[in-house]
Amino acid sequence: MEGKINEILALLPYINDNNEKLRVVSTLLKISNGNQQLLSLGFDVVETIHEDLGRIQSLLSLATAVKDADFELYKGLIQMTINEAEKLANPKQKAMALSDIAVEAVTFDEKLALKLVEEILTLILRIELKEDKTAAVMYFLETLLRSEDIEGAIRIAEKISEPYYRAIAFSEIGKVLAEANIPLYSSMFSQALKSAAKIENPVMREMTFGEIISKLAEAGKISESLKLVEKLRIKDARIQVIESIILKLIEIGELSEASKLMVLIEDRKKRSKLWALSVNVLIKADNYEEALKIVESLKDQIHKDLALSEMSIALAEKDEFEKALQVVRHIQDSYYKGRAFSLIGLELFNKGEDGYQVLFEKAIEEAKTIKNPQLRSQLFVDIALRLTTVNLRESLLEFLDRKNKNAEESVKEGNLERAAREYKEGLELSEIARLRDYSGHFRDKIYDIRRKLVERIEGG
Fold first, then answer.
1. Local confidence band at 208 (pLDDT 50, 70, 90 cut-offs)
2. Cα(331)–Cα(116) distance, rounded to whole angstroms?
3. Rounded to whole angstroms, how far apart are CA atoms 449 and 349?
4. Phi, psi for 392 (deg, rounded to 5)
5. What single-letter DSSP state applies at residue 427?
6. CB-side exposure of 271: number of CA atoms within 13 Å?
7. pLDDT in tens, 128-185
8. Which of 77, 120, 258, 443 is least crowded, fewest Cβ atoms below 10 Å from its Cβ?
9. Are 429 and 396 in contact (CB under 8 A)?
């Protein structure tokens, strides 16, 4: 295993962002179940992060990575993050840091979590600048949603007085509920729209309506979004929603409906990008001729490369690997070419085919030639994570099965929030590995838990 880990660690110097480096190390640490060399490396990376909140979040990342292997070490690292957070003088940063810590603490020490929540609320009251106070509140609300504390998130949203942020808060809650088809989502979006209606500036009011309806579309509520978009008076707000609807329709494979809306997008570059993304759906539906027509119609090379990348990945998903690699040869942009090579390599490995190592090598070669430092770094992060799921596949499958088992035990104990956390950890890595059966299972379980938690709220 050491050689396979070192192959991934060799990619770290190409990653500019130390937080992203730590993400790779933490992923390796999770899957390897507490490798001491990786833990030591993780601490070294944390020391290079000088931004206070980022360093605390990095320590939290290390803590969650060792949780299964060494629970006492996990609790010790959580305490370390609390100690670090208590040193922060800025109440906004301190409230944000403690919000992240509270989400972790609730899974093993409810009293500690409640104590942290009380401190967060006290800190928020101490924040003088209105913008900072609102930012801290919204951050806290987002962490509550991440931990499936729907009731807590609703309570926080109800305390927000500023109409814009109150509207966005309720729409975020509504989106989480709508994704799991929980009827309460309708009430949350209704509250969001009522709050937005109180915004005095007419342009900002309409754009906020657009933001809210876009979240409804992102959650898959297409017909409701289409009805609401007709009421928007400002063109930019309508376009914002229509783009969200088109993207969701493409995602769920409803290309015919998406195509009807494409004509409403006047910006040629935006329209080209949407058409490029649609190629993936056409290939999966065996509509090769229409996919090729779209590729040929795209005038910007970058959008053509995006379309070709999507086409090659879709072909690989259909086990048409030779065709996929033929398509990759026509991609000019190094980012999209490297992306395609790494994803086809991952699909090859998942199907038990040979040749995946060569494709990962090609992906790395392409990544090295990318001139944009941010894109180059991002592709190296993606390659490192995908290669992790390949090189440590046996350990990854053990990890995913462990997440499932831990979650089932938590459900039996009545700790649904902890169960959701376990399923979410499994979902994140199964999606990187493109193990769709696992991903579907974890997602369904998360939604089941979300429904049960809402039933608790509604049951009083």
1. very high
2. 51
3. 32
4. -115, 40
5. H
6. 14
7. 898 999 999 999 999 999 999 999 999 999 999 999 999 999 999 999 999 999 999 9
8. 443
9. yes
CA pseudo-torsion sign 150, 152, 158, 162: negative
Q: CB neighbours of 266 closer than 8 A, spacing ≥ 6?
A: 239
Please give the Cα distance from 417 to 453 (Å, whole number).
8
**Tokens (6 digits) for 226:** 């289409």
Cα dihedral sign, 47-53-57-60: positive
Burial code (b: 16+ CB inside 10 Å, e: under 16) for 440-457 equals ebbbebbbbbbeebbeee
Over range 251-266, report the average pLDDT: 91
**Residue 194 one-letter amino acid:** K
| Contact predicate 347/434, CB 8 Å | yes
User: In the numeric block, which tokens belong to residue 100?
Assistant: 């992240």
**For residue 442, pLDDT beyond 90:** yes
Between CA 260 and CA 189 the distance in angstroms is 26
Question: Which residue intervals of 106-149 are DSSP H helices?
Answer: 110-126, 130-146
287: buried, middle or exposed (CB in 10 Å: 19+, 13-18, 0-12)?
middle
Give the C-alpha separation, 179 to 169, whole Å: 16
Sign of CA dihedral 168, 171, 173, 179: negative
pLDDT of the residue at 331 = 97
Reported for 215-218, long-range contacts at CB under 8 A and 24+ positions apart, including other chains, are 215/171, 215/172, 215/174, 215/175, 215/189, 215/244, 216/171, 216/174, 216/175, 216/178, 216/189, 217/241, 217/244, 217/245, 217/248, 218/175, 218/244, 218/247, 218/248
Residue 108's φ and ψ, nearest 5 degrees, are -135, -15
Integer Cα distance of 122 and 47 in angstroms:
30
Choice among 101-105, 320-324, 364-368, 387-391 with the minimum mean pLDDT: 101-105
Name the 3-class secondary structure at 206.
helix
Q: What's the rounded Cα separation, in Å, for the pair 393 and 403?
A: 15
The answer on pLDDT for 460 being more than 80 is: no
Distance between CA atoms of 236 and 216, rounded to whole angstroms? 17
Judge if pTM exceeds 0.85. yes
Least confident span in 101-110, 162-171, 348-357, 391-400: 101-110
